[in-house]
Amino acid sequence: MIGIAREGGLLLLTLQRPDKANALSRAMLADLLAALEDPPQVLILTGEGRVFSAGADLDEARAGLATDPIWDAVSNRIASLPGLTIAALNGTLAGGAMGMALACDLRLAVPGAKFFYPVMRLGYLPQPADPGRLVALVGPARAKLILMAGAKIEADEALAWGLIDRICAPEDLIPIARALATDVLAAIPGHASAIKRLIG
Question: Which of 14, 97, 99, 150 has the highest CB neighbour count under 10 A?
Fold first, then answer.
């Protein structure tokens, strides 16, 4: 349920459960962790179908997945990668799946995408690293709108806030992500990670 495609230094990971809105099971999260053990120069993370991910699989969430530390393990693994990481959001991003996108360096999204993280309504805390990353992108008040007031953010507003970096037509999403990867893939080893350290 995770598509894994390696093309030289590029790793394309695709959530492949479109019949369930790419809801994530623990097995899928474990597969993501395993796929990231060998750090690529560029990671592109995307989904199949019209939704990037609805978050946790509901049955597994009720059985404990909603508060499982594996969510933070995946997002922290993404955040620690030395190369360029791009979330190519093919549709709506919800719940714990937002952590993976927040951990990426860049976020592209299609026009119809929505963004929400309904932890307040569901009675959960967000994963530990997510609020800080969200605040770094949108500021504390807007982070509270999402995490406490349950706001659903449309793509245009997400772009204006800095939650995403570019809106792309669906057919252009992966080609644009690949184009953004070009310079990193052509660089000498360590150049991308050196720039990331300078940016902080």
Answer: 97
Q: What is the pTM of this model?
A: 0.96
CB atoms within 10 A of CB 126: 22
Beta strands in 110-189 (DSSP E): 114-116, 153-154, 166-167
Pairing of strands 114-116, 106-109: unpaired
What tokens does 190 get?
């360590």
Domains of the chain and any CATH numbers: 2-199 (3.90.226.10)
Task: Count Cβ neighbours within 10 Å for each residue of 21-45 and write b for 16 or more, e otherwise.
Answer: bbbbbbebbebbeebbeeebbbbbb
CB 12 within 8 A of CB 178: no
Number of residues in the chain: 200
What whole-number distance in Å separates Cα of residue 128 and Cα of residue 193? 24
